[in-house]
Amino acid sequence: MGHAYLIFIVLDKYNYHVVEKVAIRPTGQGRRGKMAGNHHFQEPYDVRDVQGSAAMTVDQGMAQAEAKYRVVRHAVNLSAGAAVAREFGVRIEFRPITDADAVVADRWTYRVRRLQQPWTPGWSWAAQVRKERRRPRRVEAAAVYLDVQPPVLAGLILGRISRNRVVASIHFLSKNPTLDVGFAAIATRYLEFCAAAFGCTHASIQNPIPQLVQHYRKLGFRHVVRKKGKIVWLEANLQADIERARRLAERRRVT
């Protein structure tokens, strides 16, 4: 089969335009995977993600799928960086998370109201990055703040693409506590680009910190899903904006 063209667009309510167009090969859906809430997430490796997979070993197929989706994430990084610069007035470089990034983020601590001791997230970034990289289709970015010299790590973003590519989600998110940057808004903007790139129509924040729920809702994640009284994820429907932007981008490309 020939290549399909995925148009990466700035999802802006007032200005829709093409940032970059990347050739990708059509793909099938992933296998039925583990449950996360009501969404099925892909298994670490799906033979239908690669070409000629019957004669491949699992490692070979995994490597080919990883290379394929690395191209998609790279285009997302460029497009989201351009949008953040225009919309937020800050220069952010999105790139893959490195081992050094994980070490730095694991040292970050946060001051939380009503808590006397600094709060630290209950996960290891190094361990979570290793785990999520078993999934070639994923949300992954280190955000580097370029408006200071030398540039500094602003935060890390890690998540998943649902098995049937309906939902792009953030599962782990950390901000550099020394920077006065609205990182939650930047991270959710990045997630919107991931959703558009992977063909998803919804974006979600998994297990949001209670103190940030209202902030995420103001950013568009208004649908609240609870289990046993606890908020397990917040969801935004991006379908209308994505479809409108795609139509306008295609029309401009043709003309």
Question: Can you give a write-up of this model?
Answer:
The protein has 255 residues and is α+β, with helices and mostly antiparallel strands. Helices cover 33% and strands 26% of the residues. It has six helices and eleven strands. The strands form three sheets. Strands 5-6-7-8-9-11-10 form a seven-stranded mixed sheet, with helices on both faces. β10 and β11 form a beta hairpin.
What does this entry show, briefly?
The chain is an alpha+beta fold and 255 residues long. The chain is built from 6 helices and 11 strands.
Q: Radius of gyration, rounded?
A: 18 Å
Number of strands: 11
Number of helices: 6
Largest sheet: 7 strands, mixed
Order of helices and strands: EEEEHEHHEEEHEHEEH
Task: Please write out the topology.
Layout: E1 4-9, E2 18-24, E3 35-36, E4 39-40, H1 58-88, E5 92-95, H2 99-105, H3 125-132, E6 138-145, E7 152-161, E8 167-175, H4 183-197, E9 202-206, H5 213-218, E10 223-227, E11 230-237, H6 239-254
Parallel strand pairs: 8-9
Antiparallel strand pairs: 1-2, 3-4, 5-6, 6-7, 7-8, 9-11, 10-11
Key features of this structure:
255 residues; alpha+beta; 7-stranded mixed beta sheet; globular
